[in-house]
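Supplementary Methods, section 5.1.

A reviewer requested that the exact input to the structure prediction be made available. We therefore reproduce it here, unchanged from the version used in the analyses.
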Amino acid sequence: MYNAEEPKNVISKCLKYFLFAFNLFYWAIGGVMLGIGIWSITQKSSYKELSSIATDPAVILVTVGCLIIIISFFGTVGALRENICLLETYKWMMVIIVILEILGGLLAFAFWPEVRDSIETQIKKGIVNYRDDIDLQNVIDGIQEKFKCCGSSNVNDWNINQYFKCNGPSPEECGVPHSCCVKTEGQSINVQCGWNVRHKHRLILAKEKKIYIVGCLDAVIIWFRDHLYVVGALAIAFAFPQFLGIILTHIFVGQIKEQIAECSKPPMYKYRPDRTPLTSDYIQ
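The structure derived from this sequence is encoded token-by-token as follows.
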């Protein structure tokens, strides 16, 4: 007796569920980033000016979180449902992001003077709004403490802040934030350590070694130059999941198309001598 053979399965279940878990993981990361960003925004009591939105860490978290959630949604559902349309959308969104990242890096390298000026402008905007945005304040303090720097170009950049400008009404006038102060190991934080220090000349400040006098922009650039291997490793670690997602999705889509073609073939019949014929077999 002849029996129609089942079409062979060419879709890898391992690849399918790896892609599903891979994108579900990033979907969760995007959700956490979005949640933290929204929580940070709701905690702000002051009105945010439009000009400061681009430098607001909370807004950046919300934007990046939404982008990750949208992209990983296509990958997660597409892998689970074996949907070519969703998977192709996911793949090309990832390709576009990678291309934009590469172009951004090349343009930043080619137009470095302009990029440097733009970064310095954004840092100075952050200095102006230092006391008005707690998230921005924490970011600036973290950078100054990590890279042992103060201000954008030098300590005098803090004169553009209304609380730290010289001859201002604040007790902090002509000073710098405590994150600019040189700290020894085990020393407790003195939030008043930077008050009124800029009344002294920079050479005296450098000799006393009580506050950092190097600008943060130069300090960050020097750090990157001194840690090229670390920067390269981080760049690879950041790029690898993106390329992995693109390649695996391309392979998986190929398997789905192959499975569709396999199921579209005319049925092949195989002789089964051990099978008892049924009435329906004779009718066929």
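Residues 153 and 218 are 7 Å apart (CA to CA). These observations are discussed further in the main text.
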